[in-house]
Amino acid sequence: MPLTRTLSIAGIIFLADRITKWIVVDYLDLAGRFYIEVFPPYINFAMAWNRGMNFGLFNGDNPVTRYILIALAAIIVVGVIIWTRDKKGWLIPISSGLLIGGALGNVVDRFIYGAVADFLNVTCCGINNPYAFNIADISIFAGAFGLLLWGDRKPSQ
User: Fold this and answer.
1) 137 an active-site residue?
2) Which of 65, 84, 110, 118 yields a CA-CA distance of 20 to 30 A from 57?
3) With contact defined as beta carbons under 8 Å apart, do 96 and 6 qualify?
4) What is the DSSP string of 63-92?
């Protein structure tokens, strides 16, 4: 049952990520426009192609890097499924589903675009945020954080 929950959450996140990217990057043509004001100055769409990991770590146009990152994501997805498949409770399947759905969403980007399509730019409180992210990034972060918090708890906790 926990694996079913994990895969259900992963599917929802994957679809949400793919739909938002299709709407913003392709339909609204953010890829060609580069910037769209949504709720200035707090929320805007700013096109960023991330060929690396978070914050551009390991960024580069080398196709080998692209496929290494795809393979790494696949290994992480399989590892999370194996590690969490028998865990009890409801927080671990949610956390692992968030991480898996987000990872798969970004993997599809690497196949389709050659890079991860980041577009959400959030600025607040007079701080100009130069970074963009997407639904998958949020889900990966939240899922990893959840697994760190609840992943090693005993079933009675």
Assistant:
1) yes
2) 84
3) yes
4) HHHHHHHHHHHHHHHHHHHHHHTT--SSHH
- Domain with 30, as residue range(s), is 2-127+134-150
Within 8 A by CB and 6+ apart from 32, the residues are none
The answer to whether residue 140 sits within a structural domain is yes
Does residue 96 form part of some domain?
A: yes
Amino acid at 61: D
Nearest CA among 36, 35, 65 for reference residue 50: 65
19 near 109, Cβ under 8 Å?
no
**Is residue 155 in some structural domain?**
no
Catalytic (active site) residue 152: no
Q: Is the peptide bond before 41 cis (omega within 30 degrees of 0)?
A: yes
Side chain identity at residue 15, one-letter code: L
Chain segment 126-150, per-residue pLDDT in tens: 888 888 999 999 999 999 999 999 8
The residue annotated as part of the active site, out of 61, 86, 118, 152, is 118
pTM of the predicted protein model: 0.86
In a domain, 157, yes or no: no
Q: Count up the domains in the chain and report the number.
A: 1
Contact (Cβ atoms closer than 8 angstroms) between residue 139 and residue 94: no
